[in-house]
Amino acid sequence: MNQGAPGNRTLAVDVGTVRLGLALSDSLGVIAQALPYVRAEPRKQALAEIARLCQDKGVVRLVVGLPKAKSGGECPATLMAREFAAALGKATGLPVLYVDERLSTRQAERVLLEADVSRRKRREAIDSMAATVVLQSFLDRQAPGPDGA
Predict the structure, then answer these.
(1) CB-count exposure of residue 18 (10 Å: 0-12, 13-18, 19+)
(2) 40-71: pLDDT as tens digits
(3) Taking a C-beta distance cutoff of 8 angstroms, is the pair 95, 109 a contact?
(4) Eight-class DSSP state of 102
(5) Mean pLDDT of 20-35
(6) Are the CB atoms for 104 and 14 separated by under 8 Å?
(7) Percent of the chain, pLDDT > 70?
(8) 22, 28 in Cβ contact below 8 A?
């Protein structure tokens, strides 16, 4: 599926009310890397900033973390993420895929704690780290099996 073309990157977004965590794949679609977050408001500016980033980095698809209740059902945060994703798809003209992100923030917090990142810096990095967890999960599911299929 992924041939490593220069413009074959995926951008993940962890939608929050204050910050939008971002992560970008390599051109092979194997490794997710955290990017600096974007402020969620003003929304128009955030959309324009992400659209510009997509253009500059050769992004061909977007992955948005979809928060769900522990039961697996939708919650108010799910609706917020869907609304932002729809606006982002429109602003960029790119397809938007959703990935369940229920445990991504906890996993990101664990990684940052293990790396001994200070509380203040964790607060600034958690959203992009969560986006990285979501994107890496997506990329791992896209990878061909050991037989190349």
Answers:
(1) exposed
(2) 999 999 999 999 999 999 999 999 988 877 77
(3) no
(4) T
(5) 94
(6) yes
(7) 73
(8) no
